[in-house]
């Protein structure tokens, strides 16, 4: 009888260990851009030799350097920024703007420090883009209709990537348009 109890206890410990391991692994696995089923063969390639990155984007998107549109539709100067503007997106009846801003000499920030820097109080999630780790703050209340912000460190540079759209959230529609672009983002220096 005592031998049977010992076997049951050992089996329970093993099962709890396996469940705990996979729970921990899922909790701390960094999400990244899904690579499967993303077709980018007809995308254009953009390389910023100054910022040190390259990416691909759909050929019908508009690319701006050092400029972006404000919520009022006015073009603004935005140094150290590349902006992609989509056409009206299928099923969303709106377009989106992706701004990629880079800075030198800023780095090693905690998730809380990044949240403070970008002006949000929501919790970020660890995220990986182009093999570089950072944080994603999805669907923040920042901006007139909210935005999703990625913050990535690469060497002595940081990239703050902002995804904005009037009336469409990242997790409720924009992600399927953004992920193919993010899957091609690579730091080149």
Give the topology.
Elements: H1 2-28, E1 44-48, E2 53-57, E3 62-69, E4 75-85, E5 96-104, H2 111-118, E6 125-129, E7 132-140, E8 147-154, E9 157-165, H3 170-182, E10 186-187
Antiparallel strand pairs: 1-2, 2-10, 3-4, 4-5, 5-9, 6-7, 7-8, 8-9
CATH architecture call of the largest domain: 3-Layer(aba) Sandwich
The CATH topology of the largest domain is Protein Transport Mog1p, Chain A
- Helix share of residues? 25-40%
- Which structural category fits the helices and strands? alpha+beta
What's the β-strand tally?
A: 10
Can you summarize the main beta sheet? 7 strands, antiparallel
Strands of the largest sheet, in order across it?
3-4-5-9-8-7-6
The termini sit apart by 66 Å
SSE order, as H and E?
A: HEEEEEHEEEEHE
Number of domains: 2
pLDDT below 50 for ≥5 consecutive residues: which ranges? 19-37
Mean pLDDT figure: 79
Specify the CATH class of the largest domain.
Answer: Alpha Beta
User: Radius of gyration in whole Å, from Cα?
Assistant: 21 Å
Describe, in plain words, how this protein is organized in 3D:
By secondary structure, the protein is α+β, with helices and mostly antiparallel strands. The chain folds into 2 domains: 1-30; 44-187, Mog1/PsbP, alpha/beta/alpha sandwich (Protein Transport Mog1p, Chain A, 3-Layer(aba) Sandwich), CATH 3.40.1000.10. The protein has 3 helices and 10 strands; from the N terminus they run αβββββαββββαβ. The protein has helices at 2-28, 111-118, 170-182, and strands spanning 44-48, 53-57, 62-69, 75-85, 96-104, 125-129, 132-140, 147-154, 157-165, 186-187. The strands form 2 sheets. The protein has a 7-stranded antiparallel sheet with strand order 3-4-5-9-8-7-6, with helices on both faces. A 3-stranded antiparallel sheet has the order 1-2-10. Strand 8 (147-154) and strand 9 (157-165) form a beta hairpin. The radius of gyration is 21 Å and the shape is globular.
